[in-house]
């Protein structure tokens, strides 16, 4: 089921809604030209439905549209980017090598 992903600039987070109900969020810190992605949380009752991946993908697309790079501090976001290399270009250049190294070690 497709989620509605919304950017809540005031709270510095991307929010996932299913049928008008908040089911999760991805928090970030605005660093100017980059966003530090700090935490992803999905309502436990909504777990196992792929909502976390939809939320991260929606947030990354939103940040891409804003022209921001990302620093994935959240392990879920880092893992998502490793599995979806089309988003690696969004990762701040100083962090890309670290993600690539982690990917090789996990194989």
UniProtKB/TrEMBL annotation:
Keyword tags: Plasmid, Transferase
Record has Transmembrane as a keyword: no
One Pfam assignment: Acetyltransf_CG
Domain N-acetyltransferase: 1-106, 6-92
Single GO MF annotation: acyltransferase activity, transferring groups other than amino-acyl groups
Domain of life: Bacteria
Designated name of the protein: Acetyltransferase
